[in-house]
Amino acid sequence: MSEPEIAAVPTSPPSKAATDSPGDQAKELTKSPKSFSASFSIWPPSQRTRDAVVKRLIETLSNPSVLSKRYGTVPQDEAAEAARLIEEEAYSFAASKANADDDGIEILQLYSREISKRTLETVKAKAAPDSTAENGSSSPAASATIKEETPSVEES
């Protein structure tokens, strides 16, 4: 039993490629990828993206969140300063690790991890002095405990 033949019925006017000879079509196909080859890189992020990161960091540090439940919130002005510093340091660190052969994904991940790490360090550092102040002392040295005097046993 033979396969039925299916005839292609054009529904629109033939394109330039359909009217060209097979050799012309092959040339067109080899040219097409070049016209669509666009360079796409996600590193470095644009200034607009970096500004959005800083804005989000300010919100994270100064508004109630999972992080603030554990470490407390940071006042808006301190959060703005800390956010800019966190982003700049993370960007500098990631940029120093970037190379021309990379597509940017690994560097962007490094940038993101650095921001997270530095954010956590910032809220922990802010929470440490606050927790000692709540205990009635301003520093760990000020909360020295008084030891009971116990008689020492001398060996003979």
From TrEMBL:
Is Transferase among this UniProt entry's keywords? no
For this UniProt record, give its keywords in alphabetical order, as a comma-separated list. Answer: Cytoplasm, Nucleus
Spans annotated as Disordered = 1-42, 125-156
Q: Which residues form the WPP domain?
A: 39-130
Q: What is its main location?
A: cytoplasm
Q: Does the keyword Glycoprotein apply?
A: no
Entry's localization field: Cytoplasm; Nucleus
Q: Which domain of life is it from?
A: Eukaryota
- GO aspect biological process, one term: lateral root development
**Which intervals carry biased composition (Polar residues)?**
32-42, 132-142
Q: Name one GO cellular component term.
A: cytoplasm
A Pfam family assignment: WPP
What is the name listed in the Swiss-Prot or TrEMBL entry for this protein?
A: MFP1 attachment factor 1-like
Q: Gene name?
A: LOC111012991
